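In the design runs reported in the main text, the only information available to the sequence generator was the tokenized backbone. The following block is the verbatim input for one such run; it is reproduced so that readers can re-run the procedure and compare outputs position by position.
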């Protein structure tokens, strides 16, 4: 495990922290600006670290960062599916605004990129890098995304656990020709970035891990049957024999399968609203069978532990290079995942398991009394974008929706939201349009028939009657299995949640019109 030096009574660091909190943007302070590393995992749901109370997972390096940092225990992703969530993190706005996703017909434009956090940091003197799954290449820049960064070792095509089985040029090894597993390749790429640094500039490195995404877990053993239902144990693959993480780890552990696995999913969402046979039950078939679901859990946990090891190596490298005292680490995931719960698999819904993510910030300059703090306020992934800019001393563009987390971390007397708007416009596999509100102990969700690809009028729900609604009390029902919508019909509580949802939905529709005129966005159909 890496070592973190305690930093106390350093006048220079205190001055730097004051500048950050006040949002100072003096270009003469470039040498005092912190380095920023944004670590993004794939399909990792909340509470999947040992320190977050997970009873099985071993994540000593990430646990140490959380102990020395600040955790956000109620962080929700803006869009709970791959591509739109990544575009939202880059741009700081909902899919309703930026328009880029699997179900839309828009591409990310040059004007939008000009207002993304990597480009804003680059313009303000940061050396920028991107490693791993870019996730939006199919929708933008026609293969020229690498020109948007100073360092690029990224892709949209590493869809397998052993990516060098493909012809990906960017997968070629750097030092160790024996490395052919995706996560060590990512670690090697981080070292390449560190070796490339211009020490005269602060840096911002975005690392987008592929794990523990389903394409990685299913391809640990490369048989056709395995892709369908994970019927074979991954460590029967000779390539994984003796591996510290991917051979026997967790295989002797009693891993419980969700009690809903293999049961009727239509108890929770009616088939007329979302038909499982339209793709969800086929793409995630291993979560619809008890035996293969258990194998999925083992591989999922193994990949998180393998990821943890690479992050430990990264921290050791920062320390060895003398950069650990001025490097901020921000950690999140592109969304969560259903793994048999509700009789389903996959993402794209507003259940906590799909839309809530693990999130923490490690700032080595934090006062000792703030280290290890847990913040329970409602946080959006859009706040991460604003926070990155705040740390760099850059004023966020007016259209960005999130708020910096820095004042919240510093225990400042800051007004914070008491409710959070949620949405999912992913409509493949018969997924409905979803939007909702999280407020206190309550979560309200409503669903409308999805369109693919959707038009502007399809996502304007004003005056429309929802096809299905859900209401959960998260204090009494954290698993979100008891829908109280009929019990609370006609109450002031439900009326207020519906009004909040109406207001946010309508405001986003209005904001979208202005944003798209400003960014010169047009329908690509």
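Verbatim output:
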């Amino acid at each position: 495990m890496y070592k973190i030096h305690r930093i106390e009574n350093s006048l220079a660091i205190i001055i730097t922290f004051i500048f950050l909190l006040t949002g100072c943007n003096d270009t003469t302070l470039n040498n005092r600006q912190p380095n920023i590393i944004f670590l993004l995992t794939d399909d990792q749901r909340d509470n999947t670290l040992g320190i977050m109370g997970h009873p099985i997972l071993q994540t000593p390096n990430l646990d140490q960062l959380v102990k020395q940092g600040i955790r956000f225990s109620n962080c929700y992703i803006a869009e709970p599916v791959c591509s739109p969530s990544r575009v939202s993190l880059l741009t700081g706005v909902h899919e309703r605004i930026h328009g880029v996703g699997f179900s839309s017909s828009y591409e990310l434009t040059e004007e939008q990129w000009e207002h993304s956090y990597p480009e804003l940091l680059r313009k303000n003197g940061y050396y920028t890098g991107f490693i791993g799954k870019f996730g939006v290449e199919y929708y933008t820049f026609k293969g020229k995304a690498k020109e948007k960064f100073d360092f690029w070792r990224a892709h949209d095509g590493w869809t397998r656990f052993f990516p060098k089985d493909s012809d990906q040029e960017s997968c070629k090894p750097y030092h160790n020709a024996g490395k052919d597993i995706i996560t060590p390749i990512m670690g090697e790429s981080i070292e390449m970035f560190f070796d490339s640094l211009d020490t005269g500039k602060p840096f911002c490195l975005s690392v987008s891990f592929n794990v523990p995404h389903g394409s990685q877990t299913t391809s640990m053993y490369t048989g056709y049957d395995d892709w369908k239902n994970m019927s074979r144990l991954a460590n029967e693959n000779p390539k994984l024999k003796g591996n510290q993480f991917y051979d026997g780890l967790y295989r002797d552990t009693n891993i419980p399968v969700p009690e809903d696995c293999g049961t009727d999913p239509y108890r929770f969402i009616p088939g007329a609203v979302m038909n499982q046979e339209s793709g969800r039950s086929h793409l995630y078939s291993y979560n619809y069978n008890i035996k293969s679901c258990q194998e999925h859990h083992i591989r999922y946990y193994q990949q998180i532990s393998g990821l943890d090891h690479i992050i430990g190596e990264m921290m050791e490298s920062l320390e060895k290079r003398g950069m650990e005292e001025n490097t901020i680490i921000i950690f999140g995931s592109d969304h969560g995942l259903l793994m048999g719960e509700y009789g389903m698999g996959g993402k794209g819904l507003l259940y906590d398991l799909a839309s809530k993510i693990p999130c923490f910030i490690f700032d080595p300059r934090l006062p000792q009394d703030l280290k290890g703090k847990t913040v329970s306020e409602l946080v959006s992934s859009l706040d991460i974008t604003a926070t990155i800019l705040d740390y760099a001393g850059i004023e966020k563009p007016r259209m960005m929706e999130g708020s910096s987390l820095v004042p919240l971390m510093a225990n400042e007397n800051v007004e914070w939201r008491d409710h959070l708007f949620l949405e999912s416009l992913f409509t493949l596999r018969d997924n409905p349009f979803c939007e909702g509100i999280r407020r206190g102990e309550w979560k309200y969700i409503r669903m409308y028939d999805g369109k693919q690809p959707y038009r502007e009028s399809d996502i304007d729900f004003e005056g429309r009657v929802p096809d299905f609604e859900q209401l959960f009390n998260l204090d009494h029902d954290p698993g979100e299995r008891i829908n109280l919508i009929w019990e609370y019909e006609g109450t002031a509580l439900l009326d207020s949640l519906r009004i909040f949802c109406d207001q946010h939905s309508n405001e986003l529709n209005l904001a979208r019109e202005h944003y798209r005129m400003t960014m010169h966005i047009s329908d690509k159909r």
